[in-house]
Design a protein that fits this description.
single chain, 211 residues, mainly alpha, Serine Threonine Protein Phosphatase 5, Tetratricopeptide repeat, two-stranded antiparallel sheet, binds adenosine-5'-diphosphate, binds magnesium ion
Length: 211
């Protein structure tokens, strides 16, 4: 079993739907420890991605083509901290996924590349209360699943669970990167909005692979 460009398109559409559905929640999370625009930023970005997909003459040929379109669109429409971070994540992922179809190892390579991109861009380590805290356990869970011979859909399901746990685990952390770091210890007790949106995007990837 492999995941092809049609899966990637479905992933993107499901991500857009999830981000729209959770827009107010993401705004509220970002209001608590940031400037309250994360839901708006992400909804604007994914809406633009879907508009570009809808306007294509022919469906994208490879997973990499889909992810490159996501990367360039998010970079130019999301803004704030998350725009360049997600843009870089999807750009790196597009290079790792530049084949017709992904097996379990391809999924792992794509997720690892995304994490490397976020870290290269934002210089956050795990434990700083950012999207890195969702992506890092997601990658670890994906590696473990693939090592046990899981098919790509199960690798993504594991990644989504890792991201969920990682996002929840940001609640007790003190933010030391991004806008939330201005609050210092007052950032404790709140879920990081970027970790939450990362969870939503990985859950969308898993559900697109499962159906
Ligand atoms: P802004 O903070 O500019 O308003 P957003 O609200 O869209 O941007 O995104 C905020 C999210 O970006 C945070 O919740 C956090 O997950 C993520 N973030 C901020 N800085 C970094 C960083 N240096 N590395 C990784 N993620 C970061
Ligand atoms: Mg914000
Ligand atoms: Mg902002």
């Amino acid at each position: 079993m492999t995941l092809d460009a049609a899966w990637a398109v479905d992933w993107v559409r499901r991500s857009a739907a999830a981000v729209a559905e959770h827009r107010d929640e993401l705004v509220e999370l970002d209001r608590q420890i940031g400037d309250g625009d994360h839901g708006e930023n992400m909804q604007r970005g994914f809406r633009a991605v879907v508009a570009k997909l809808d306007a294509l003459d022919a469906p994208p040929a490879t997973v990499g083509d889909v992810l490159r379109l996501v990367a360039t669109t998010l970079m130019s429409t999301v803004g704030g901290a998350a725009g360049p971070l997600y843009g870089t994540a999807f750009l790196r992922a597009s290079k790792a996924g530049a084949t017709d179809a992904l097996g379990a190892d391809g999924v792992v390579a794509m997720l690892e590349a995304a994490l490397e991109g976020v870290v290269a861009r934002g210089k956050a380590a795990p434990g700083e209360k950012t999207m890195v805290d969702a992506l890092t356990p997601a990658v670890a869970a994906a590696v473990e699943a693939a090592d046990h011979g899981a098919p790509p859909s199960a690798v993504l399901a594991a990644a989504a669970l890792g991201a969920r746990d990682g996002a929840q685990a940001t609640v007790p952390l003190v933010a030391t990167k991004g806008r939330a770091s201005y609050l210092g210890p007052r950032s404790v007790g709140h879920l990081d909005p970027g970790a939450r949106s990362t969870q939503l995007i990985l859950e969308a990837a898993a559900s697109a692979a499962a159906d």
